[in-house]
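Hello,

Our lab assistant flagged a job as stuck in the queue for most of the afternoon. It eventually completed. Since we weren't sure the result was trustworthy after the delay, we are filing this so someone can double-check. Below is the sequence as submitted and the structure that was eventually returned. Let us know if re-running is recommended.
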Amino acid sequence: MRVSHTLKSTEREKLEIVAGLLQQAGYRSGKIDWQTGINIVRVSREDVSSESDERTRIQGIVDHFGIEDWSATFS
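-- returned structure --
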């Protein structure tokens, strides 16, 4: 299964740190975009075995860094 996460924050530095950490963990990361007052980055990963484990993992990162918005798409 493949997952794509979209993370949004008003603080670009937070997204830079999170995207860097996820890249080290095997995720692919796009560049950080700026859209109407918010920074957005998309990260993805192939071969996700469990949707619930993946959501738990990323939710922990989102909570720790105070990311304002996060969504995930599984396919």
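-- support follow-up --
The delay was a queue issue, not a problem with the job. The result is valid. The beta strands are 3-9, 28-29, 33-35, 38-45, 69-74. The mean pLDDT is 96.
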